[in-house]
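Quiz preparation item.
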C-alpha cells in the first residue's frame, strides 16, 4: 500500500514539471518562428490565388504607360540567299580521284574543289590534236595552190577547193578547242585529269560526292553547292490575320535564339502569294546582312513594326516570372490575397523595364519581385 501511494505521488509531482518543459518548448518554437516570413496559403478553390498573412512585406510596383508602334513577333529560320547560291557543275563524266574540300568549308573563287579523271576530256584533247594537224596540212596545201595558180599550173577551181579545205580545217580546230574549254580543260596543259574549281567565294552548303565516286555530268547531282552567306534570307511564317501589318519594303528586327542580346536589321523583300493550307500562314522573306554570326538553319525571332501607335503597360523586368512556357505577374487582391495573371511580355526597355503587350494595363500594381514571391509560394 505504501508503494502504491509513493508511485502516485511521484507521478503527480512530475506533472507540473512536465507541463513547464512543454511550455518551455513551445516558447522556444515560437521564438524560432518569429523571424520566419509569414506563410502564404494557396486557395484551393482557385490555384492562381494566394493569401499572405502580412502582404505588406512584398514590395509593389505600378505599371506605367508605354507608347510605341504596333509590333508583330513571329518565329523564323535562317536560310541562304538563293540568288547567291551557285551549284558546282561539270559537263565531263569520269571518276573522282581527289576531293580537296568538304561540306561547311569556306572556299575562294577559283579554288580547286575536286579532281576528276575524265575519258571525255581525254577524247577532246585527241580530237584537238588531230584538228591541229589537219589545219596545218590544209594551210600548207593552200599556200602551195596559191603559188601554182600564180604560175598557171593549176586552175582557179583547184585553188578554191584548197581554200575551202583550209576554212573547214579552221572550223574543226575551233570546235575542238571550244569542246575542251566547255569540259573545263586547259589547252596549255593537256591531261585527262580535270580540276573543278569554285565558281564563287562562299561556304559549301551541300555536298553530293565522295572519294572514288563517279561524275555523270549534268545528269548527276551537283557535286557541291556554294552559298555566299554575306547576305541571308530570314524566312518566317505569318498568319493570314496578321498579314495586313506586314508590307514589302518595311524594316524588321531579327533576334537569333543563340544571340538574344543582338539585334539585326533587315528589309521585307517578299510576301508569299500562297498560304499554307494547314497552318494558314504565308512565308515572309526578310533580307539581312550577315556579320558572320548567322548560320543556315538557326532559329530566330522577327519583329515587324506597324505604322500606328499603340499604348502598352510597362513593369520592372523582375515583376515577370516565366513558368510553363508562359509569363506571369502577381497582382494584389483584397484581404491580403494575390492573384497570378498571365501576360504577354514584350521588348526590354531602358531602366530594366519590360513592355507588357497584354494581360494587365497601365496603373495596375504588381509584385515587384515575382521570383521571390514564387519561391515563397513553393516552400509552402
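Solution:
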Amino acid at each position: 500500500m505504501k508503494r502504491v501511494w509513493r508511485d502516485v505521488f511521484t507521478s503527480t509531482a512530475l506533472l507540473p514539471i512536465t507541463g513547464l518543459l512543454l511550455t518551455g518548448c513551445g516558447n522556444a518554437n515560437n521564438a524560432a518562428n518569429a523571424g520566419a516570413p509569414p506563410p502564404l496559403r494557396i486557395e484551393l478553390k482557385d490555384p492562381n490565388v494566394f493569401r499572405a498573412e502580412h502582404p505588406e512585406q512584398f514590395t509593389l510596383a505600378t505599371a506605367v504607360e508605354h507608347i510605341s508602334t504596333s509590333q508583330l513577333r513571329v518565329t523564323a529560320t535562317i536560310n541562304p540567299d538563293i540568288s547567291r547560291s551557285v551549284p558546282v557543275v561539270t559537263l565531263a563524266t569520269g571518276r573522282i580521284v581527289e576531293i580537296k574540300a568538304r561540306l561547311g568549308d569556306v572556299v575562294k573563287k577559283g579554288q580547286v574543289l575536286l579532281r576528276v579523271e575524265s575519258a571525255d576530256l581525254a577524247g577532246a584533247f585527241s580530237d584537238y590534236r588531230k584538228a591541229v594537224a589537219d589545219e596545218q596540212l590544209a594551210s600548207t596545201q593552200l599556200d602551195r595552190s596559191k603559188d601554182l595558180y600564180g604560175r598557171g599550173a593549176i586552175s582557179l577551181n583547184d585553188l578554191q577547193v584548197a581554200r575551202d579545205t583550209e576554212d573547214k580545217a579552221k572550223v574543226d580546230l575551233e570546235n575542238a578547242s571550244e569542246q575542251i574549254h566547255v569540259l573545263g580543260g586547259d589547252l596549255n596543259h593537256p591531261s585527262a585529269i580535270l580540276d573543278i574549281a569554285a565558281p564563287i567565294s562562299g561556304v559549301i552548303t551541300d555536298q553530293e560526292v565522295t572519294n572514288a565516286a563517279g561524275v555523270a555530268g549534268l545528269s548527276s547531282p551537283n557535286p557541291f553547292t556554294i552559298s555566299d552567306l554575306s547576305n541571308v534570307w530570314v524566312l518566317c511564317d505569318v498568319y493570314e490575320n496578321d498579314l495586313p501589318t506586314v508590307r514589302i519594303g518595311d524594316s524588321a528586327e531579327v533576334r537569333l535564339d543563340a544571340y538574344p542580346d543582338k539585334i539585326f536589321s533587315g528589309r521585307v523583300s517578299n510576301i508569299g502569294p500562297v498560304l499554307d493550307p494547314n497552318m494558314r500562314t504565308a512565308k515572309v522573306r526578310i533580307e539581312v546582312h550577315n556579320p558572320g554570326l548567322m548560320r543556315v538553319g538557326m532559329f530566330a525571332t522577327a519583329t515587324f513594326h506597324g505604322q500606328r501607335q499603340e499604348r502598352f503597360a510597362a513593369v520592372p523586368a523582375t515583376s515577370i516570372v516565366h513558368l510553363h512556357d508562359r509569363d506571369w505577374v502577381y497582382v494584389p487582391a483584397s484581404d491580403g490575397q494575390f492573384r497570378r495573371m498571365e501576360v504577354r511580355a514584350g521588348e526590354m526597355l531602358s531602366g530594366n523595364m519590360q513592355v507588357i503587350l497584354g494581360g494587365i494595363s497601365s496603373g495596375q500594381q504588381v509584385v515587384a519581385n515575382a521570383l521571390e514571391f514564387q519561391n515563397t509560394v513553393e516552400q509552402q
